[in-house]
From TrEMBL:
UniProt keyword annotations, A-Z: Carbohydrate metabolism, Glycosidase, Hydrolase, Polysaccharide degradation, Signal
Domain Fibronectin type-III: 261-352
GO molecular function term, any single one: cellulase activity
Highest rank taxon of the organism: Bacteria
Low complexity biased stretches: 255-276
Pfam families registered for this protein in UniProt: CBM_2, fn3, Glyco_hydro_12
Alphabetical GO biological process terms: polysaccharide catabolic process
SUPFAM superfamilies referenced in this protein's UniProt entry, alphabetically: Carbohydrate-binding domain, Concanavalin A-like lectins/glucanases, Fibronectin type III
Signal peptide (residue range): 1-25
UniProt region (Disordered), positions on chain: 252-281
Protein name from the UniProt record: Fibronectin type III domain-containing protein
CBM2 domain mapped to chain residues: 352-456
Length: 456
């Protein structure tokens, strides 16, 4: 959305030595790229006027925030914002804060304890959003553009603006209801827009990241690189303020008690492509309340969060016939604390078809660069009979690696990629269509992209 151009510029400045590490002082920042570290380097505050040449100043609060004191922006609301003044912890274009322990792989045991909080003040005028911006990369990157997932969490917005892409669902997380938006601009942008605006938020990073993983937009193997909180103004913006910000293990939250372990799931109604799970309810004594359950599915050595439920049942679809799966359930409370995983149930799907006729898959290369590409859309077109699942396979050229996929799940074996539908998009009527996309890296200078897509 906003970062591609500024990241390129900052990368050049860093490489040439013209952009120095943030200074300790500077209580008021008016420079376009001005930034300063606070609390002995624990956080960095940046002015970050990346999308406009109009004036903007921020008054830095050394105790952990800033106020936009001047903002002369007036940009069309159907395009990118003027800036992203923000406070952050972690690594942002070769400037890493002290003590954040980032980058950190999302599969690390400490990742589940990472917590952040923010308190904000909003003016009644202008057009803006108030948003966290949380970055993930397939590698432990400390500089350059992240190419995994950008999680945006909109606490509030004013004016006719919307996130990148389109709305794909709603979800209850961190004590609130959120619209879920998805788009891809060379990396996955997953935005959570609160349906009832709030001026403060306190949550674990995994609360939203686990949801993005369950939708196929992010991966547990990726690395968290930075956690940022601030504002995107299109028009005006003076008076926007971050009053306080925290990031770390435990953060500023009061509920650190995980829910109890869910009961062992049972399976019923198993077909060649689906099964229904039920389990005993968890209880939560931490005060934030039980928010729902995450369903874990193991196939071979691959463990996936395949969905979530606010009840004690879940139907998993798009399975392969005559295949054995293991299921476990984790409870999640309103503060993002996760329970231990339940005991497992083993399910073997029935043999036989159920696919409902032939289907085809066609792929379009959206964009390609020297060492990577984005394929979107890959359109699956059904035959004359309805189906409850679909699978697309294609050979991955030597040296290529898939770094992200959306609207589907995938596995790689022996150079062959197998893509399967998610729970929400397996059902196709006669001649119906559905699409997914993915991003991949390739050896520098290699111009190949995959071909030979087969649908079953």
């Amino acid at each position: 959305m906003r970062h591609a151009h500024i990241y390129l510029i900052i990368g050049v400045l860093l490489a040439t030595g013209l952009f120095a590490a943030p200074a300790q002082a500077a209580p008021v920042l008016c420079e376009k790229w001005g930034s300063t570290s606070i609390q002995s380097g624990r956080y960095v505050v940046m002015n970050n006027v990346w999308g406009a040449d109009t004036a903007q100043c921020i008054d830095v609060n050394q105790s952990g925030g800033f106020t936009v004191t001047q903002s002369a922006h007036s940009k069309p609301t159907n395009g990118a914002p003027a800036s992203y003044p923000a406070i952050y912890a972690g690594c942002h274009y070769a400037t890493c804060t002290t003590g954040s322990n980032l980058p950190m792989q999302a599969s690390a045991s400490a990742f589940g304890s990472l917590r952040t909080s923010v308190s904000m003040t909003y003016p009644s005028s202008g057009t803006w959003d108030a948003a966290y911006d949380i970055w993930f990369d397939p590698t432990p990157r400390t500089d350059g553009q992240n190419t995994g997932a950008e999680i945006m969490i909109w606490l509030n917005r004013q004016g006719s603006i919307q996130p990148v892409g389109s709305q794909v669902g709603t979800v209850n997380l961190a004590g609130g209801s959120w619209q879920v938006w998805f788009g891809n601009i060379g990396w996955n942008v997953i935005s959570y827009v609160r349906t009832s605006p709030t001026s403060s938020l306190d949550f674990t990073i995994n609360t939203f990241y686990a949801d993005a993983i369950s939708r196929g937009y992010a991966q547990r193997s990726w690395y968290l690189t930075s956690v940022q909180a601030g504002f995107e103004p299109w028009v005006g913006g003076a008076g926007l303020a971050v009053n306080s910000f925290s990031f770390g293990t435990g953060g500023g939250g009061t509920d650190t008690t995980a829910p109890s372990t869910p009961g062992t799931p049972t399976a019923s109604g198993t077909t060649s492509t689906s099964t229904t799970l039920r389990w005993g309810a968890s209880t939560d004594t931490g005060g934030s309340g039980l928010a729902g359950y995450d369903i874990l599915r193991t196939a071979g050595d691959v463990v996936q969060r395949v969905g979530s439920s606010t009840t004690t049942s879940f139907t998993d679809t798009g399975l392969s016939p005559a295949t054995t799966y293991r299921y476990q359930v984790q409870a999640r409370d309103g503060a993002g604390n996760l329970s231990p995983a339940s005991a497992a149930v083993t399910v073997t799907t029935l043999s036989g078809g159920g696919n409902g006729g032939a289907c085809t898959a066609t792929a379009t290369t959206q964009t390609a660069w020297n060492n990577g590409y984005v394929i979107q859309p890959v359109t699956v077109t059904n035959g004359s009979a309805a189906r409850t699942s679909w699978t697309v396979t294609f050979p991955l050229p030597s040296g290529h690696t898939i770094t992200g996929i959306w609207n589907a799940s995938y596995t790689v074996s022996g150079g062959t990629v197998t893509v399967r539908n998610l729970a929400h998009n397996g059902n196709l009527g006669p001649n119906g269509t559905v699409s997914f996309g993915y991003q991949a890296s390739r050896p520098n200078g290699n111009t190949q992209v995959p071909t030979g897509y087969t649908c079953a």
